[in-house]
């Protein structure tokens, strides 16, 4: 997406005009204009020159957001230069100008109001040269009105320009209302002049003429609109505070080691692999890994969590987080735009440049609103003239209709709420990549969780140590450590970590061999040791009924039992499980209370999957799902309602993309975060329900804003037209009401800052939107699950060495349907993995042709 700054827009009609103009440019696939940030996001291969030309031809100005004129220069800009350009784009240049304009306007307007109301109505004193000088008073009013109108000439320039381009905006309404008031007053002034020059004027007649003058309205209308614009600009500025504050946290310099010395350099000069130093109180400049030192780091800039996180050698650190206690040296990993912090800023900025679907409603209305209001004002004038009311009365009604109508409230209703909602999300570590994702997250009906690393911690831990009868726990742990220490398997690492905590020691082993998919064998002090699954261990020793029952119990609890044996005798088992996260059950309960169905997808078997699901409070589980099957499952679930997929791994990215809303865990793979619509920087599952809560709050705020904007116009336009009996609205009050409408919308949006996204107390349990029981049953029966791997174990006599193992392996793998064969001459076994059913006789013949005897096949 290429982003631009658009100048000259004053209301939703301007926004619609720019979108329409740029949308016609060849090569533009989509365009989104934000009135709130005066920015425009364009996707496609259209040149910047063509886009800018289209905007200028529509009567507005445009430039690239980073100040560059070409894509090549844009790419050459440093990260800090882009950040500075981004800050400059968000800087409030408009409010100071509006405040100055308002101050001058009010000064001259007070004098005008003193004459028109103070003197003419209340008989307050005026200078002698104006006392009883009717023509002098009228001329003074005209001059003061001209001054105020000149001070606010921007309304007239923009308004009449938009009229000439055939796309009238809100400024056109202001310009027409003020100009018509001034023109009518000028006509009345000429009438007064004629009466005065024709003879001595009647005092009562002159008073009637004074009451027909609307110079104060001509001045009051732009002045009051300026009041509204100023309040609107101030409140709009607050809606971008979150993004501005994020940018202020970005480090500008880094202390790196160059030629053995510490040197302070600009942040753009840091390269991957550089060693940088951070002292207590300093911000960490780039993403990296600590190579020396321990500290506590305040990561609130990324996660919203105020509690510091302990860091030590080997731990990663992120840019813009603050080192609080110790001195550290770290190696730069990701720099510039690649840092996590830069990506957060980009996500929030891009979200502000996109448009929520609900905003299209207001855009469609705003596109025809101003022309319709001008037409209505003309019709009102004609009708009152036909009824027989005087021109002054008819004009007053028409002017009131022009100035009270407010398309701005419609145009701001959605973007201000979206901007504040995005800011609140960013402060809480919840990043919505687009406005559409912020809107749609609250409409979710089904949330599908990946199991590993999402519902569970993704780090297997030892849960049970069960020695066999006559074997001590220390003996079992020592054997386990000796066998698993060399293995890279995650379950083996969990066992090693547990043994290290117990301070057990073990004698070294020889002839260590990993048997893929099965287990490990090794020799220790002349004794043969084995470790592996229940299926593998049964090939080297016999399990008694008690051990088999314990194995079943552990499996039902979602644990994986690892068996250990020595010289054909079982030493015991160690159970390992991927434990669920502390907040998983709470997150699931919160989602269910919000009327959302929760499903868990996993590649585990049914028994393990349901055991994990039960602990997390998830009763709808689809087990045995292949990575590419997750996408198909999401597609099927979408038939039941809007679906979110929550995951963290590379294998989750297709499902994250397929889902209506993809939610990535911040600690996961980069590709998962790139594929997602929402990123949870804290990696907490309760942030899923918090994201839904924030989305629903934002959507509710948008509905409130739209209701106010529509209701305001529906109620007050007829009032201004004089349709309510006994109510006659002065154009000045119409202008005041118009000013307050936009301000009200902005202030209502700012209430979102008060939302407590993690507070579930005020959300009562509601009925689930989607019923997915039948869908879950069908999905469980379909082939989204992994095919059962077929294995057979052959007991082979005659193998004496590694050469014998190689001969048997080669012979078995030559049989059609055999994918792999693992032979062990110590255990006298050959375990074959099959891609299809293979007759036992074919396996037996292959081995016996090599002069080895097959005793049995299991």
Please state the overall shape, judged from the principal axes of the Cα atoms. Answer: elongated
Overall mean confidence score, pLDDT: 79
- What topology, given as strand order, has the largest sheet? 14-26-25-24-15-22-23
SS field, number of helical segments: 32
Biggest sheet descriptor: 7 strands, mixed
Low-confidence stretches: 67-76
Structural class, by secondary structure, is alpha+beta
Strand content: 15-25%
Summarize the helices and strands and which ones pair or pack.
Layout: E1 2-7, H1 12-23, E2 28-34, E3 39-44, H2 48-57, E4 61-64, H3 71-76, H4 79-90, H5 94-119, H6 134-151, H7 153-164, H8 170-197, H9 203-211, H10 215-239, H11 241-249, E5 253-258, E6 261-266, E7 275-278, E8 287-292, E9 295-298, H12 300-303, E10 309-311, E11 316-317, E12 322-323, E13 328-334, H13 340-353, H14 359-387, H15 391-404, H16 407-427, E14 430-432, H17 435-441, E15 446-450, H18 451-455, E16 456-467, H19 473-484, H20 490-502, E17 510-515, E18 519-524, E19 527-532, H21 534-537, H22 545-556, E20 560-566, E21 569-580, H23 584-593, E22 597-601, H24 606-616, E23 621-622, H25 627-637, E24 643-647, H26 653-658, E25 661-665, H27 670-675, E26 678-680, H28 686-721, H29 731-750, H30 773-781, E27 790-797, H31 802-813, E28 818-824, E29 829-834, H32 840-848, E30 853-857
Parallel strand pairs: 15-22, 15-24, 22-23, 24-25, 25-26
Antiparallel strand pairs: 1-3, 1-4, 2-3, 5-6, 5-7, 7-13, 8-11, 8-13, 9-10, 9-12, 14-26, 16-21, 17-18, 18-19, 19-20, 20-21, 27-29, 27-30, 28-29
Helix pairs in contact: 1-14, 5-6, 5-10, 6-8, 6-10, 7-8, 8-10, 8-15, 10-29, 13-16, 14-15, 14-16, 15-28, 15-29, 16-28, 16-29, 17-28, 19-20, 23-28, 28-29
